[in-house]
TrEMBL record:
Belongs to the binding-protein-dependent transport system permease family. Keywords: Cell membrane, Membrane, Transmembrane, Transmembrane helix, Transport. It comes from Mesorhizobium intechi. This is Sugar ABC transporter permease. The chain crosses the membrane at residues 21-43, 76-98, 110-130, 159-184, 205-230, 269-289. It is found in: Cell membrane. It is a multi-pass membrane protein. Gene3D superfamilies: MetI-like. GO terms for cellular component: plasma membrane. The keyword Transport applies. GO terms for biological process: transmembrane transport.
Amino acid sequence: MSKSERPSRLFRNLNAKVASIPMILTALVVFVGGTAWTVLYSFTNSKLLPRLNFVGLDQYYRLWATPRWLVSIENLLIYGVISLVFSLVIGFILAALLDQKIRFEDTFRTIFLYPFALSFIVTGLVWQWLLNPDFGIQGVIRNLGWTSFAFDPLYNSSIVIYGISIAALWQGTGLIMCLMLAGLRGIDEDIWKAARVDGIPMWKTYLFIIIPMMRPVFITTLVIIASGIVKVYDLVVAQTSGGPGIASEVPAKYVYDYMFFAQNLGQGFAASTMMLLSVMIVIVPWAYLEFGGRKRV
């Protein structure tokens, strides 16, 4: 490209570039600046108010020596694996069923997607009632005659995180189904016809042909699910408030409690930074797969 062409490219779509300046400044100041501010003060001993009294890695040492934080990380891993695996599997199966051009498809799609329209607080309260041992699922079945039936995950510290995961799957699977259905509808009909002509079983068509072709959809879906996993907070608060004891503690609740109740900003900032690191672990591979791979093509 000649030097005379560079200024013309610089001023191309000038109005759009000028209009994007406020958004760029907002992103730099609010997101990048706020992130840098949080990381900086995570190395201080700030309490009620932030102060630049650096203590090195003391907040991080204290963080990883706190049983409550370790429990929250363990819960996040369990919740994350359940959410990733089951929401993907259930969402894809529902999408594959709806893709068969069944009757009342719009009705079923609305029913499955409706829980996603509810806030996590509403979802948590609904499932708190459903899982209540006195008048929820357990109470109803016992009233039918099965008096030995037990199903009270929110009141059992060893399985409480699984009860929370049930509510999360109920709310989020519908969105995954819609994303997968959009990906399936983008597959050329000739591919299905060729597979039927060759006598390939449907499950093999999905497993070895359709799913690899939907790679961008799966990557985007994984990022959406992973971001929701890291920041889970309101669902836990609505169902258990972190109980019994600290059995259902999650990192986001740990951060909130230390910053606003314990008045220990330094510890809250350190936990926030660790959450940021977990988000980066998800975002960086996604960006590489989405953009780095295209450059090689």
